[in-house]
Amino acid sequence: MTPRNKAAAGRRPKSSEGSNAKQQQLAGFTEEPTATLTTNQGLQIPDNHNSLKAGVRGPTLLEDFILREKITHFDHERIPERAVHARGSAAHGYFQVYKSMSQFTCADFLQDPAQKTPVFVRFSTVAGGAGSADTVRDVRGFAVKFYTQQGNYDLVGNNIPVFFIQDAMKFPDLIHAVKMEPHHGMPQAASAHDTFWDFASLMPETTHMLMWAMSDRAIPRSYRMMEGFGVHTFRFVNGRGESHFVKFHWKPKLGIHGLAWDEAQKIAGKDADFHRRDLWEAIENGDFPEWELGVQMIPADKEHAFGIDLLDPTKLIPEELVPVQKIGKMVLDRNPDNFFAETEQVAFHPGHVVPGIDFSNDPLLQGRLFSYTDTQISRLGGANFHELPINKGVCPFHNFQRDGMHRQTIARGQVAYEPNTLGNGTEFRVDGASGGFQSFPEEIESPKVRRRSPSFDDHFTQARLFFNSQSVAEKEHIVAAFRFELSKLEVPAIRQRIVDNLAHVDEKLARRVAEPLGINAPDARAAAGRPGFRDHRIASEVEESRALSMLDTGDGSVKTRKVAILVADGVDSASLKPIREAIEAAGATCKVVGPRLGAVTSASKRQIEVDATFTNMPSIMFDAVLVPAGKDGIAAMAQMGDAVHFVLEAFKHCKAICTVGEGVQLLKMLGVDDSEAPKPAGVVVAATPVTNLGDATAAIQIAQNFIAAMAKHRHWDRANVDAVPA
Ligand code: HDE
Known about the structure:
18 strands; globular; alpha/beta; ten-stranded antiparallel β-sheet; binds CIS-heme D hydroxychlorin gamma-spirolactone 17R, 18S; single chain; six-stranded parallel β-sheet
């Protein structure tokens, strides 16, 4: 039974009420199912295989309006892809606040814990085209559209809490630098090329975000295992007109987890849709991804209390200074029905706000407020993209904007202006006296200047804070990522400028990055002498922040983790059963992987159904590996390069591995056996006697050890994995 069928058979839990409301609204726009094919005008098509010809072997006639309609429509199927964030995947769900936030904001969807607000969420990479691979090293977009009763609210964020640049003026330059180079169109979806690092090296304000982008945050294990951030400071405004500055956070229930870089690159080739598939399958299986919405709130009069300028998007506020309060949860419980109509046509805009939420003067945010409508007009073909079903609010809308390409609303009557007396029979006049959106009346009296605030001039303190807050393994991954990216550059001077800048973050980091790159030792003074370099340090009250590390995050469960069970003819199926049951009871999913599809025959002559093969679902598609006992089965697998590679590669990528009985022989090359000797972190070896069929307690203990190893996600501190030939 396919997951879809399972869903139809009732396994798919009901969508939330909120999602249903949106669904009902969308229903009016869906195609009528009919038994016959018709043209777009409704004319029945008698033959959908043959064009109209002059004789069966003659030329096709121009008169064939059925063929012309079909081909013309096909010719225009594509719309321009997004200039950034072109590659994305989305899902429907709902948001629910835990308790009324009326003390801080009058936003309607943040008042009533009983109310479920429908949402549509699109995750994306930034640099690649729409068909590029999911697991590239990149920032991920995390855009949420709340369909509230006061209008749509869009929280258009990323999975990294800071941005590369401080002013919208530099955005086109940043994007031109990171996208494929204009002369030869390479590389696709990768920052590891000269133009990106040339720009970054000349713009030290990028340093903080570079640290994040070189960390495992930029190669997430799953969209379901990423944080999200609003990045900019926004404002909450309550019913009395009082304002708090606010930073938004999404905290994933499953924790924050990354891939190994080698793994991410291999997945890009083996399954370019890895994240899209993961999100889709989780929702189809009823494993609804969940995040909590957190806020850091700063009273308006404490704007300058932390040394950090809240308007600077290259800075975060450490959670030690302002704790994140969790105010609600978001659950994604329904896959889109149509990728184009929903995921592709959804139009987000940071300027879509509701009463109670307002902007700060962050100069990056201010630039975004212009860009998003502008881009939709060319991407979605005109000014009426708000009428597309996925973009339409659930509350009524009314104004006198008229006409334009693809207009769908049929406005009635004589009046298309305001004020008027002819519309409703009464004078209809709006002076903004009460209700509706009121901009926070911030006082501003300043000269017009084209300058950066000096309070934005510290480019390194928080880069250092981030680095210092990482675990040993996370630091190693950052060093390796810088080395990899910089090694791809053709111009050594760019590498040099980057490591010179890094010397202002951490001397040792800079030296280690520089070591294998064929350049000079980092020179902090050279960096300081370059134009654009500014380093007016803010006093940092926090040296390390636990929240910046991905270590030990999440609820500690193994829910939705994928386990490969390796089989071949002659494995011991009985040694598998209790372990598999315990793993599945803990919420992980198992797939039986063998040399061929169909079934293998166990030592006791049972048929074991095979779900996938060593080559069509290699180890990079899984979180953990279980190798059963069975003399003949293991002897056979030891001769299969793909099976041995499977286990070695899982080991290299620091995944949990459990072997039972003879299964340990597949780890021989790693020097692991079933002796009493200590095992590498995350490797569980069950010696043959304890797996005796009758000994269920022993099998359950093994399963528990394996589950505990899996729950750690990865054993990044496993020694010497680079030496493993996989
Ligand atoms: Fe965007 N950004 N951006 N951006 N952005 C777009 O809008 C832009 C920025 C973000 O899934 C575009 O509809 C400017 C920061 C996401 O559909 C475009 C500036 C953050 C998405 C655009 C920024 C983001 C976009 C391309 C600097 C994190 C995908 C297509 C002034 C807080 C939304 C589109 C989706 C998309 C412009 C900076 C997040 C061109 C000018 C900072 C998640 O309008």
